[in-house]
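Mods, move this if it's the wrong board.
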Amino acid sequence: MVTDPDMIARLKELSGLMTAGEVFEQAPAQRAQGVPEECELEQVVKGEVAENDLGRFFLATRTSSVTEHHGNVALLTAQQVGGDTIATMANDDELREFRLDRALFLDTETTGLSGGTGTYAFLVGVGRFEGGNLVLRQYFMRDFDEEEAMLVALADLFRDAEGVVTYNGKSFDIPLLQTRFITSRIRINLEDVPHLDMLHVARRLWRARLRDCSLGNVEREVLELTRHGDIPSHLIPQIYFNYLRTRDARRLAPVFYHNEQDVLSLAALASRAAQLVTAPPDLVEAHPLDLLSLARLHFRQRRYPRSERHASDAYDSGLEPDDARHALYVLALSLKRQHRWEQAHSIWCQLAKHYPDDVGPRIEMAKHLEHREHDLKEAHTICQACIAVARHIGAGEDSIGEIQYRLARIERKIDSR
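Not the wrong board. Structure tokens:
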């Protein structure tokens, strides 16, 4: 850790970094010097000064035709996604009335990542479908005294919103904006607005394959999108502080671009996720791990035929041993929920053969043999083998006790014959 004050001063001089306190101290003098016309915000970012009863703020508007593609997805497809699909991919029945064509796609750029009362959302991008276009409006406060005017305009949007789509917004963007509304004494409860957080959808569908579900990585891997002229997120707060200090807006252009791409990616990812969960299984072309994720999702939603098909396709497509075992588990359980006992039993036998240290398949085999085949002798043999495996892998006494209880019941049945 750097502790030498002289070294810290040298580093700041080299990098141009400043503390927030220094920004406020030096800003008035540096602003008074003025900046060349080509460095002013209106020359760098296409937009205009908006005004309401509480003051002014800067508003940039960009219109994209729904026929345009963002990555490998046409924006048009997002307009066609209905509530049943949203509820499925979000695993949330409360979103069954949610429609993407009536929602706000929202992303914020902030002065920090803490999300506390001292953190400001200085740029808020909001996209929504209007006719044949996706219209993006970017609300920007040129100084802290413009926050209330910007927030009032945003509050009007939220009051009319039928839903909001974010990426990690449940944990960050929405709580942060709610804090700013409360601080500015603007009465609105953002929790009343139905919310689709695409981070949770992305984790549900793609984490098995990607591990890293940051928006940038999901864009690259799922949307096949490469940004040009973007800027890393961690640099954005300092760029804003530098703007406040100098009024030189040239470095803000990549920040507006970054925010724009984030908002467009929300619509594209929602569309891509919807395609995966609704397309007929025969038409789904996806990585084996994505197929496994789909199988799990549909199983939780009790769509057992789809779960069965995706699990089978994932297994047949080639998976690592642990993932292959999970695919067979989902397949067997999906068959069991459909009362296709013989086929499920066949999968349990396959699991027991390929994964000899797994107790679960043997327990299911014993259940089937006892209750449906009434083959008590074979069920007894399986239970004995199951106890041996459980002890070998160091299973707890409670688990072993449950198997012993089953074994004892089978023995009583045998004796009563």
